[in-house]
């Protein structure tokens, strides 16, 4: 077998990235995503691309936040692993997959080849998530009217809410952050990430019961690619009432009122309450995403 050559791309040779077959439909899944050419890397054998990766971040980020697109050719798992191992950035890996990929032998084999390459590069499975995309054709979800929503300019209120929401959370990323650095650090990292979005800080809202008790928060946002549900969370003492739906409905209405024609969202497949709320709110499942954590 010929030697492997791994190289970064630039504007001039960016088309090399598109020469690998696409059995998992990555091109369609990332049609709204802007990837920087210099954050794309390929592995070549005898001049042919056998693995590729695209790292992603915001337009002002100095380094990427995640590996957003990762592919390997048949039998080239080790090439894919070497592509990840030698990258200058050690960040999480997200594999975008079509719905029902496990039921299709070709897609399942392609996905498992990428999983094997990621594991060989030292990545560990973190969580599988559903991807959603609401459009105006879905119709706006009904507002239950049980909570009172208002902007809250004080970051301290959101930080305290995040600390409390993280207690008993079903979100795998939050649990991993707590395990890695404690609840205070996890809450501050979450707050920093919410500030990363380029949409107005004034969009963030708190939700209170009619007697004024804080029940939850939601953050409508616009990431570098599209409007999205950045965060929905219910405080522990108010769980069990379905308030997650109220927050999601309000978040959707807010984004639609600010011109969104579509809204992206995601939740862990094991988060049964939020999966139910997305279904009730009319968010169709667009696909799946498997998250791997970097060692």
TrEMBL record:
The keyword Aminoacyl-tRNA synthetase does not apply. Pfam families: Acetyltransf_1 (PF00583). InterPro entries: Acyl_CoA_acyltransferase, GNAT_dom. Gene3D superfamilies: 3.40.630.30. Keywords: Transferase. The keyword Magnesium does not apply. Residues 145-295 form the N-acetyltransferase domain. One of its GO terms (molecular function) is acyltransferase activity, transferring groups other than amino-acyl groups. This is GNAT family N-acetyltransferase. It comes from Streptomyces lasalocidi (Streptomyces lasaliensis).
